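Its record is set out here:
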Amino acid sequence: MKQLTDRVAVITGAGSGIGRATALALAKEGCELALSDVNESGLLQTVALIGGDSTKVTTYLVDAASPTEMKKFADAVASAHGHVHIVINNAGVALAGNIEENSLEDLEWMVGINFWGVVYGCKFFLPYIRKEEEGHIINISSLAGLMGIPSLGGYSATKAAVRSWTETLSNELRDTPIKVSSIHPGGIATSIVDQARVAESLNQEEMATNFSQRGVSPDRVAQKIVSVLKSGKLRGLICTETYVLAALLRVMPRTTHRLLGWGWQRAQSQVTRR
């Protein structure tokens, strides 16, 4: 985008993690903010961290999986701010476990938020963005959106769908002043594992500890989002593992799949021996 100052930015899932970090980063850039989440206390904490009266911030309790709530959200933001320039579809959840272990209920829960939430964010805000001289939609995918990850089959599927949806919409809006981009983080130190639905065969506490200790700060993702907004790039990769996987998939896709499968089988056998 030519400028971020005074632009109206919408962020879903802004009550914690990547959404909160992005809200703070865009506030520093001079954006007005329209923030949503299902967690009211998290939203209030984000607003408190932004602080001051230098930027206009509105908050909304919204279930991203609900088309009715997302439509009302889009209309309310346009009414409150008068404009919509940027939409960041960030709200997301995780589901861990083998595909055979995942219940249909859990899969539907995740698809509703991770994919349909992105669809609704694009569909309901796009008519308002079209009224502006420029705009940008950013959809949060994942390293898992580049390749199916064992024990994260459903999650990988939703994030791959987000990537494909983003690429399609970007091409369809090619001759307009609206950019569309996907962001692909690797391990980020957020609470997503704590709030995930995890199969009994996996150790959720151990997974959460690994993410908190080894994951990079959500601030890194926020910085990449700001960079992509300014550059207009289609895709933003974050974390060493994401760059490595993307490179390997370009150079030797079949071997990369085999290596990942071998690594997963080895990990499973180690768990079995414990």
Q: What stands out?
A: Residues 13 and 91 are 4 Å apart (CA to CA).
